[in-house]
Amino acid sequence: MSVPPAERTVLPVPTGAKRLTVSEGAERRSGIAGAALLMAASLALVLTAGALARELGARYGAAEVLFLRFLLSLPVVAAAAFAMAGRRALSVTRPGGHAVRALSGVGAALIFYAAAQHLPFADLVALSYAAPLFVVLLSGPAIGERAGAASAVCVALGMAGVFLIAPPTRLEPWSLAMLAMAFLNAVCILATRRTAQADGPAATGLVFVLAGCLLTAPAALLTDFQMPEPADLPVFLLLGFAAGAAILLNAAAFRRAPAAVLAPIDYLGIAASAAIGFLWWGESPSPAVLLGGGLIAAAGLGTLWAGARR
């Protein structure tokens, strides 16, 4: 998911052709059901964090909100990472990949937080889900994976959804910024695939949060940093907890079930964001946004299906 998805540590679970006994099949189904609940909880926390960040962004700078979110989520992520991997949580074998992931992921998150004050919440989330389309386009030159005909059709379908939400005839600067955010998220996803396979989810998640603190601190200090009002402190704490817990629940879900099972749950975020925008800020998504979001979700699921077939 993309609010922002850069923090997600996705490690696809291998699926083999081994025949299962009745008890093993029941255990597998129970595990998948548990993973689905973890994924749904992670999605809820990601959307909550996005909504809280948007609310705080009306009173504080985007860089400050992002810095405090990274800082306050660090204890949650660090405790889990050290519990999972001990000292190896700080051991990385591909520092260059982690640097690319951090720069692209933090840049994407900063764009999202800034754009949140200029676009409806449903538009923000729907456009952010265009990231998998850019993954397909970049996977060839970046990691040598060629997209097939089915993936190409899905990309075209998804781009049609993007153009419905942000028509070229009336593109706004912040709509273009969100497409840049989706592109940066795609770069981050491709970098995550390399770093997570080499270093594991604990190091991948912890290093990203640490890098986020370091990268956003100067920007926060240089853009009129102001101490949070006492009434906003619980909101910032909730933002940090939600962001950190979402990373952990997402990683736990993908350790229990394959991406093909969990991705459809993640794409419910497009519909959920429309409901949040309406209930929280009274925003009614236009038919173009609803249709465009549906096309983007269908395209994302289609690229996943095409990749699974390959």
UniProtKB/TrEMBL annotation:
Tell me, in one coarse class, where this protein mainly resides. Answer: membrane
Its topology with respect to the membrane?
Multi-pass membrane protein
Q: Name one Pfam family in it.
A: EamA
Source species taxonomy: Bacteria, Pseudomonadati, Pseudomonadota, Alphaproteobacteria, Rhodospirillales
Question: Coiled-coil intervals in this record?
Answer: none
Specify the EamA domain's residue ranges: 37-165, 175-299
Protein name per Swiss-Prot or TrEMBL:
Integral membrane protein
Keywords (alphabetical) are: Membrane, Transmembrane, Transmembrane helix
Q: Which organism is it from?
A: Azospirillum baldaniorum
- Gene Ontology annotations for the cellular component aspect, listed alphabetically: membrane
